[in-house]
Structures are given as structure tokens and as C-alpha cells.
């Protein structure tokens, strides 16, 4: 399936304007989002970080978390685990971006900059 470019452009526009803390799997995901203009200071990776340590990294000024993991089995498992931990701690979680990216047909977040490169 070829990812829907228009839908992904809309996601990036909205994500850039949002003030939530973006949670991704790894450095390549961060690099892809930053290349598209998303503020790097709002993005935190989960790779090889315990959730209690991740929780400490989240700045108190963030009113919500925006998890965006890959749309594969590993990403789905990570999202389930992430949701279980953070929803139990009362942190608001916005899944709308993750759902929009999934519905656009993008599998790996790190590929978003390749789809949207000028």
C-alpha cells in the first residue's frame, strides 16, 4: 500500500501545532519528524528506556502524551504496554495522530520523511 501523502502532510501540520509530548520508538523516528519541522524538544524516544525513567523525562508542562509507534506487531505491542503503564498513572494520551498515520497507510514512522520529502 502506498501511503497517502495528503493525509500525512495534514498529520505533520497538526502535530507541529500541537503542544503535547510526542513519544516515538527510536532515533530514526525523531530524525524523520524533525526533518519535517516538528520541534525536537517535544519528542522523546522509548527505545531501551524503562517507563518509570520515561515518566521522569516528561516535562510537567505537557498536558498530554502523543505516542506514535510503528504500525507493525512490535509497534502494536509497545503501544499496548505504553498505554497500560501511562493510562494507569492518569496521564492523558492522544491516540489520534497514531490512528491517522495508520489509516494513511504508513507502516514505519521513520519513513515519513521519505514520503513527504520536497
Can you walk me through this structure?
By secondary structure, this protein is mostly helical. The protein contains 6 helices and 3 strands. It has helices spanning 5-17, 27-35, 51-57, 73-88, 96-104, 112-116; strands at 21-24, 43-45, 65-67. Strands 2-1-3 form a 3-stranded parallel beta sheet. Strand 1, helix 2 and strand 2 (43-45) form a beta-alpha-beta unit. Helix 1 (5-17) packs antiparallel against helix 5. The longest helix has 16 residues, at 73-88. The chain is globular. The model has no long low-confidence stretch (mean pLDDT 90).
In short:
The chain is 50% helix and 8% strand.
Q: Which radius of gyration do the C-alpha atoms yield?
A: 13 Å
| Strand arrangement, major sheet | 2-1-3
- Enumerate how many helices there are, as a single number: 6
Based on the structure, what is the oligomeric state of the protein chains? single chain
Uncertain segments: none
Average pLDDT taken over every residue = 90
Topology, number of strands: 3
For the record, give the distance between the C-alpha atoms at the N and C termini, rounded to a whole number: 21 Å
The assigned structural class equals: mainly alpha
For the largest beta-sheet, the strand count, sense and barrel status come to:
3 strands, parallel
Strand proportion = 5-15%
- The helix fraction, in percent, is 40-55%
User: H/E element string?
Assistant: HEHEHEHHH
Gross morphology is globular
Amino acid at each position: 500500500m502506498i501511503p497517502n501523502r495528503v493525509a500525512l502532510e495534514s498529520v505533520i501540520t497538526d502535530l507541529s501545532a500541537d503542544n503535547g509530548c510526542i513519544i516515538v520508538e527510536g532515533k530514526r523516528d525523531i530524525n524523520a519528524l524533525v526533518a519535517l519541522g516538528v520541534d525536537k524538544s517535544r519528542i522523546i524516544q522509548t527505545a531501551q528506556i524503562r517507563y518509570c525513567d520515561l515518566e521522569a523525562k516528561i516535562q510537567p508542562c505537557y498536558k498530554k502524551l502523543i505516542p506514535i509507534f510503528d504500525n507493525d506487531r512490535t509497534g502494536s505491542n509497545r503501544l499496548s504496554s505504553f498505554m497500560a503503564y501511562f493510562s494507569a498513572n492518569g496521564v492523558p494520551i492522544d491516540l489520534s495522530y497514531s490512528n491517522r498515520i495508520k489509516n494513511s497507510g504508513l507502516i514505519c514512522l521513520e519513513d515519513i520523511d521519505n514520503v513527504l520529502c520536497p
